[in-house]
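Quick one, C-alpha cells below. Sequence please?
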C-alpha cells in the first residue's frame, strides 16, 4: 500500500509540473501580444488557457510580468487600449482592486503615472464603480 501511495504521489507531481510548464509556454508571448494591442490574439490565448487549464485571467495575472509590470500596467504604458480595456472587463473587481507587487492597486498606479485618463483607465474606473 505504501508503494502505491508513493507512486500515485509521484505521478501527481509529474502531472502538475507538466501543467505548469505547458501554461508557462502558452503565456510566453503574452507581453508581445499586449504591446501590439492584438485583441484577437489575446482572446485566443485566454480562451486556450481557460479551456485547457481551467484558469481565468485573474488566476494567472499575478504570475505574469512584462518588463516588471503587470499586464494592465503594460497595456497602459504601451497605449494598448483595446487589449487593456478587454483585460479589465475580464477580471473581477476584487482582482482589479488588489495591490500589486509595489503595494499600489492598478488604479493608484494609473493615477500616479498619468494613465487614469486613458481608455483603459476610464474602463477601470467604470468597472470598479
Amino acid at each position: 500500500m505504501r508503494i502505491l501511495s508513493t507512486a500515485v504521489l509521484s505521478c501527481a507531481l509529474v502531472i502538475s509540473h507538466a501543467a505548469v510548464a505547458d501554461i508557462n509556454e502558452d503565456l510566453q508571448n503574452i507581453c508581445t501580444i499586449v504591446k501590439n494591442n492584438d485583441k484577437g490574439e489575446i482572446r485566443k490565448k485566454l480562451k486556450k488557457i481557460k479551456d485547457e487549464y481551467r484558469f481565468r485571467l485573474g488566476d494567472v495575472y499575478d504570475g505574469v510580468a512584462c518588463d516588471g509590470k503587470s499586464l494592465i500596467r503594460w497595456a497602459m504604458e504601451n497605449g494598448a487600449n483595446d487589449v487593456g480595456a478587454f483585460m479589465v472587463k475580464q477580471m473581477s473587481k476584487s482582482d482589479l482592486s488588489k495591490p500589486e507587487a509595489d503595494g499600489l492597486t492598478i488604479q493608484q498606479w494609473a493615477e500616479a503615472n498619468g494613465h487614469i485618463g486613458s481608455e483603459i483607465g476610464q474602463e477601470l474606473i467604470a468597472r470598479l464603480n
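Residues 1-18 have pLDDT under 50 and may be disordered. The radius of gyration is 17 Å.
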